[in-house]
Amino acid sequence: MLDAVLELFPLDTMSENYTFVMATSDGSNPPIWTKYQETLKKHGWKSDLSQIERFAFYERTKKAYCVIETTETALSANIILKKGVITE
Fold first, then answer.
1. Which secondary structure element, helix H or strand E, spans residue 3, and what is its range?
2. Cβ atoms < 10 Å from Cβ of 83
3. How far apart are CA 28 and CA 64, in angstroms?
4. Which residues, other chains included, contact 21 with Cβ-Cβ below 8 Å and sequence gap of 6+?
5. CA 50, CA 22: separation in Å to the nearest integer?
6. pLDDT tens by residue, 2-27
7. DSSP letter string over 29-81?
8. Burial of residue 79 (number of CB atoms within 10 Å: 0-12, 13-18, 19+)
9. Would the pTM count as exceeding 0.70?
């Protein structure tokens, strides 16, 4: 799904952080995050994922313009994308 979204959805180039994941309780980096980083790089974006504490992530999600729910089964697959300006 991330690959398809990034085809049409510009990220915020004016912000240092434009991708956010929910920090894991044990500090690990789940395998899905590596896939996210590879997909971001494929689309020309830096692949840094900013980690947000669990409840802060929930609060930020409540303010989101759009939420896409998928059938992804990987653990810790939540991601927030900060939209940029559409220039084309």
1. helix 2-8
2. 14
3. 26
4. 33, 36, 49, 50, 51, 52, 57, 76, 78, 79, 80
5. 8
6. 999 999 889 998 988 999 999 999 99
7. --HHHHHHHHHHHHTT-----EEE-HHHHHHHHHT-S--------STT--EEE
8. buried
9. yes
